[in-house]
Amino acid sequence: MVVLDATIVNIALPSAQADLGISDGNRQWVVTAYALAFGGLLLFGGRIADLWGRRRAFLIGLLGFGAASALGGVATTGATMFGARALQGLFGAVLAPAALSLLAVMFTDARERARAFGIYGAISGGGGAVGLILGGFLTEYLDWRWTFFVNIPFALVAAAGTWLVIREPEGGRNRSPLDIPGVLLSALGLVSLVYGFTRAESDGWSDAVTIGLFSASAVLLLAFVVTEARVKAPLLPLRVITERNRGGVYLSLGLAIIAMFGMFLFLTYYLQVVKGYTPVRTGFAFLPLIAGMIAGSTQIGARLMPRVAPRLLMGPGFLTAAAGMLLLTQLETGSSYTGLLLPAQLLLGLGIGTAFMPAMSLATYGVQARDAGVASAMVNTSQQVGGAIGTALLNTIAASATTAYVADHIAGATSRSQQQVVRLEGMVHGYADAIWFAVGILVVAAGIALTLVTVGRSATGSPTDEAETHLPVSTH
């Protein structure tokens, strides 16, 4: 629900905007309200899971997310819609870290852990593409409100399963008093950072408000780090992120998400604007990516994780994804779907699925049980910030390249139809230029994984090299 909701609403946004009378200037808040609440409160949500228990936090997150979705589905004004989206973000910030930390504390057998995280990695990686398919189908054949209502049965079935099946291991809660200064500083700092990138995409990097938001974010997050180093019961114990393996995982995941979010954005516009695909056809065009992610996570990553070191899956996985992204740099207005987009998506999916699976497992492996929730929240935080950066940064690069291309070629176009062709060619040229940066980002992610992630076969629970022997493996 959480990953799917990041994209499913985008497809329905034009219809919702028209029905609710939302202005062009305010429509961004349908997406931004969710992103700010989710990104800003993730660390708080992870700490709540450690404090209340992951099963209880998971249930509260599920039911709250379902209720907020129902409110969005029956919204009759823009203000109600913005409020519903903010509530979805709030409960999503509780739900996401609770889900991952439940896996971390419940699956300790090597093979079961590999299988569980393989499935989780496939869902996490493919959820955005599923959102495009489902959003297009519901909007085109039913009504945009069903992009919200669809969450309700998901939430109820998952809550019933949680109540009947899940039994969280006893102990491992962090009952220390809540670090209120840490909550405020982290929430305000992350909100400023995510909103800064959102503003940069719409108003430019030199905009005074954009610069102010980035400056405020730097000050607030620095103050947060200083506070966490001094307080007795920190919201985010620095030991969670300073351990080199987990730090390497958070950094490489964030970079990979930057590249992936840019690719989703460009391919969606390419297929609909340049190729003229309907929303439903666009969604189905992403199926090879989903298939590749599922195969990479469950058939490659899950099978090899008990046998090889995580870096030997993450590094090659990111490089395989970079090869798929490299194919997309050849994008032209007349490019063939089967000749270019299909193999590129398969390589991207296989690479990301293979890399994400051990990364998700290692991000929480070895943490003390009382830190499992907040360690899980760091995974989601790196993904959320990476998504905001990817959307803003790569879109800015593409827009600049498109503007330059059109300026250079528009003079030779004498008719309106020729000018339209030049604009489409400029759009695709901009996408290809930005995708080159995405290739470089994935190569850097591979380098970080191969360099910083030095732990041995992390799923086995037995140290295989010097780096692993220093990990506190109290939960295993």
Automatic annotation (TrEMBL):
It is found in: Cell membrane. Gene3D superfamilies: MFS general substrate transporter like domains, Multidrug resistance protein D. InterPro entries: EmrB-like (IPR004638), MFS (IPR011701), MFS_dom (IPR020846), MFS_trans_sf (IPR036259), Sugar_transporter_CS (IPR005829). The chain crosses the membrane at residues 28-45, 57-80, 86-105, 117-138, 144-166, 178-197, 209-227, 248-271, 283-300, 312-331, 343-365, 385-407, 434-455. Keywords: Antibiotic resistance, Cell membrane, Membrane, Transmembrane, Transmembrane helix, Transport. The keyword Disulfide bond does not apply. The keyword Oxidoreductase does not apply. It is a multi-pass membrane protein. Residues 1-457 form the Major facilitator superfamily (MFS) profile domain. Pfam families: MFS_1 (PF07690). PANTHER family: BLR6921 PROTEIN, MAJOR FACILITATOR SUPERFAMILY MULTIDRUG TRANSPORTER MFSC. This is MFS transporter.
